[in-house]
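Supplementary notes for students who missed Thursday's class. We covered one full example, reproduced here. Read the sequence, then the structure, then the short commentary at the end.
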Amino acid sequence: MSQLYRSLGRSPTVVAPRSRSYHGPFGRLFPQLAPWAPDTTTDLDTFFMDFANDHMVERVDTAPSALLGSVTELESEFNGGIPAGYTYFGQFVDHDITFDPTPSGLRSVDPSGLLNFRTPRLDLDCVYGRGPDDQPYFYDGAHPKGAERFLVGQVPGSTLRDVPRNTVGRALIGDMRNDENSIVSQLQLAFLLAHNTLVDRAEQADSPRPFDDARRTLTWLYQWVLWHDFVRRIAVDEVWNCALRRTDGCGGRTVWERQLTDVYDWKHQPFMPVEFSGAAYRFGHSMARNAYQTNDPHRGFQSFAPLFDNSGPADPDDLRGFRPMLAKNVPQWDWFLPMQSSGGPFPQMARRIDTKLSNALSFLHEGPANSPQNVLAFLNLRRGWALELPAGTSVAKHLGYDPVPIEADEIDSLWFYVLKEAASLPGVNRGAMLGRVGSTIVAATFAGLLAGDPASFVNVEPGWEPRSDPLLVDGQDNVDDPAWTVASIIRLAGLPASAGDF
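Structure (token representation):
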């Protein structure tokens, strides 16, 4: 591999030119800023691997399974203020808006091949695919009322539900990445079941187009929850409030106003910024825990399942995906999200956003044990260099912020900078959310995607709210409660929220 990196020389050119007039599948927010590169004579693979191990792993050379005996103590050291379920909702969102199939940092970026195979819209194409006519194998063609509903599978030996799978256990879903682990797989299932529920309600209301009505309502609910629940939790309040807000327009109209168009804008349609996809939005990697308590009925309280661990023989209890779901790994959602039935130590918290990744992310199942392919910090650092991303301090100065100091033994990679900035927030906010550079890139991008989608609720029906939608009000626990969150999708889907639901 070191021979490969030496052959690359400086960072390769990518199909995201440094021109404000370019607006393609991928583009740049800061084309005027010079690319960052490490000041080293060491082979890049060695440099990035050494930095990842020295600065970005909680316990070097320690297998995740070795931490399980003291997992509560270790995880409390890194606990943040965001419930653990949002880590995987963020992963689901990423898979909805971006997909570059180039292996993560393991070869040069082909100038003609860096294409986004996902629409840069929050349109749930990772759920609906190309629809029942073009991809009928996602849908229940045997249903007596027609192929309006998704196929749903079942957990072996259980009444619990799983995503549909083929005979070798591979998920039949719009994006295979949403079967990477048990938690995101069950989130994918939540959207399938929520759609089916909405189709039932649309048919009961004698809708002439139940599929279209269900898809529109679920997509708008997803967009609403993403902006009002997820982004609001992870971004600094001042940035979230100005990035996109509903206000009164001329004559008392309801309009949505954006104030970060100097950061992210386009001519005809949104593009996917590489500073977002290759750095700032990868903050979620630092939120993943080594292990989780999954559910009370099948695994029990204080019994932890490792997220990933390829340090030895495959652990049948870990949460890796691409196989039929195990009953013991089905999330009890009030242990992952704040719900009415949550209590005691639940929901579990995500790890705080900082520069230390859990050991599980050094033991992925991407290749042989001890391979660079299994060290996520290495892959992200190498990928940011290949994308010619600017230095974090350069971005901070460009946006008008005072940069967070970078120590002599640290690097100014944009991804590392976003994590360090979050970890540098004062007091109780340390690692509980993104700092100002991270918040600005993430909030500006999501606001721009919503504003740039002609089918989003922001453009089609600016005054829309979940509690005003007849297909949704019937399913909300409390229709007078204005807080619609990720948990609302779980309730709509009917997935097990508490121990009594199993």
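Commentary. Confidence is low (pLDDT under 50) at residues 1-13, 101-117. The longest strand covers residues 79-83. If anything here is unclear, bring it to office hours.
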